[in-house]
Amino acid sequence: MIKAVVFDLDGTLLNTLDDLKESTNFALRKFNYPERTLEEVRCFVGNGVRKLIERAVPEDCKNIDECLEVFKKNYSENMYNHTQAYNGILKILEELHKDKVKIGVVSNKFDSAVKELCKKYFGDLVDIAIGQNDDVPKKPAPDGVLKAMKILGSDKNSTIYAGDSDVDVQTAKNAGLKCIGVTWGFRTEDYLKGADFIVDSPDEILKIVRSL
Fold first, then answer.
1. Tens-digit pLDDT profile for residues 146-158
2. How far is residue 133 from each of residues 139, 147, 182, measured CA to CA in Å?
3. Which pTM does this prediction carry?
């Protein structure tokens, strides 16, 4: 019986891409670097905001740290401009809550943003939200997921992981969990090879959880 579901955030629960693109380009403009398209930013995300900026700036960039700080400040002030939950996500979180299934979020986005976004869009439906910080290595390291499981009071046999990318599939494997790959996020289905389940709608997540 599944007692907890650990979700990725960007591309799984929330469509954050437009706000990420705008803050990336704000930082690039600040340093007179060429701006990036939405599709380019889509390919850059998934491994944390530092890696996003490293991929966005020119190869000979010498001030990645300064560019990253500009991005983080701008994003913290503008991360609600276009971001919204994917259709059907709130419904399944509410249903899981009614089923007394605990909900965790583990993301490679910086920790303060993860906590604030979860609080704004999901309120008490999310029991624990963990983002990238000095104490938690980035996914696909399993540390964040294992920490969430400990807080949620679940184990490998009673927890399942859901995400939209190859990073998420590998994270689940590293944590010893079954993985649900979602197709509505930032990556195509090709990136979900190795997932135990691949779903096209949030309702399918609920059906899987209730069937295990």
1. 999 999 999 999 9
2. 11, 13, 25
3. 0.95
